[in-house]
Amino acid sequence: MGSVSLKLGDGTARFNRSTLCSSAVNILMLFSVLATNLFALYAFTYSPKHHTITPFHHKNITLISQHVSLIIKQIDSSQKKLARIENQLLGYQTLNVSRPNLANELKLFLQHHQLPLGKDSRTGITEMVASVGHSCEKSAGLLSQYMTYKVSGPCPDDWSLAQKLILRGCEPLPTRRCFAKTVSKVGLSTWSGLGCKNINCLNKKPNGFAFDRQKYVKATSKNDFLIDDVLAMGNNGIRIGFDIGTGSKTGTFAALMAEKNVTIITNTLNVDAPDSDFIAARGVFPLFLSLDHRFPFYDNVFDLVHVTSGLDVGTKPEKLEFLMFDADRILRIGGLFWLDNIHCGDDEKKRTLTRLIEKFGYKKLKWVVGQKMDGAVGSGKHEVYLSAVLQKPVRI
Q: Can you tell me where the transmembrane regions are (predicted)?
């Protein structure tokens, strides 16, 4: 049998087989405990042949008592050492719940839970550990504030605090024992935590916040691909997809795909607007998480992965690779990877992104590089954009 480690660092449980060394240490410690217990039993049950109480006899009794006390201390020390070794072998770490001013709800959530039927014979698991992001340790004050509320009462209106924690790497967040604020979806006229309080305010901003239904129906440049054309490349095998990035803040892409009987899950964060509320109001599925989070989906489940501004080629190449590999992981063999107007800035950054994409061996069904003026960039010059539809290959 192997021991099991539950590592909290990335919010997931991992099971590792014990090494020969760790097994030997366990056996040695077990033998030590058994030996000390047997010696203690012998000391308590030993009866001398002569019952005459002599000073020497008293001395022996005192000596035995001292030995017994020493044995008890050794047993206690051995048990503590075994507990430390077990924790090391399990390998999990958690937030320091002994620090002052930590919310009681957070302490309760982080408690380890023993399995109701004891140790699992197949995996060796004895307890489950609460799943929170490793960076929560650095934001313990904010996390404690997030977990301060009235149990069974209404949750604080603190989505902005939750998003701040997520963007600091404190993801996944702990669950809470409170009721989320009920917000009417009709009209979506007001919301909290943002500078603008209504749609009219947002539409006055430079880029607006319009429900652009024409983007994927009518092309305005050679970089704009139409939904019907892309679905045809999938040979009518596109049923479910994942939309990554902030290019469809109002869920227009998912809403249009729903009209084609394709279910799209949209990754969201509320940037200057309540994106999640708007997307849900249209009857499509928002997923509130950052792009630094491992996508919470099983391998090879999506027929389509649609990426807009989520691929920032200005970041470190390794950072972009992590995102690309995880997007590739959730895309099935033969599925389509749609790069939709990815901003490359210049030709050098375009080549960097191209080299990365070519590592995956995708079949290029459509590949367009173009230039256009983008007011959002603010440079006043033409910027390079890449649009492509790629097909995931069979890998051996």
A: 20-44
